[in-house]
Specification:
Layout (H helix, E strand, L loop, with lengths): L1 E9 L7 E2 L7 E2 L1 E5 L8 E4 L11 E5 L10 E5 L7 E2 L4 E4 L5 E8 L1
Antiparallel strand pairs: 1-10, 2-9, 3-8, 4-7, 4-10, 5-6, 5-9
Length: 108
């Protein structure tokens, strides 16, 4: 698998979800999302229609990590390890403007 490191995907305005990629043709076999040390609010991962207030469209909520210890992370994988995940179908949102998550996608 070949990783591509997108780095920090930032949510400029809390409550306004951001796509992980703007390229609708970008496909991957795995997507890794990790919190960033120093996060003060929550990060939400989900699909179109993600709403942090109602949790509609939310796959997982990351809370601010403890002062010590590793960051939280979540992996989305295709069942057959093929590049069947559309990276642009996934969104993040943040409860604090300017926060975000580290994103890496993998292609087979």
């Amino acid at each position: 698998m070949q990783p591509t490191f997108l780095g920090k995907v930032t949510v400029a305005t809390a409550g306004a979800p951001v796509r992980l990629s703007t390229d609708p043709k970008l496909r991957a076999c795995m997507i890794l999302i990790a919190t960033i040390p120093g996060l003060t609010g929550s990060i939400y991962l989900g699909g179109a229609g993600l709403n942090q207030a109602t949790l509609q469209g939310v796959m997982i909520q990351f809370n601010a990590p403890a002062a010590l210890g590793p960051p939280d992370h979540f992996v989305v994988e295709s069942e057959d390890a093929s590049n069947s995940l559309h990276v642009a179908d996934y969104f993040i949102d943040a409860s604090v403007s300017g926060e975000g998550a580290l994103v890496t996608y993998f292609q087979s």
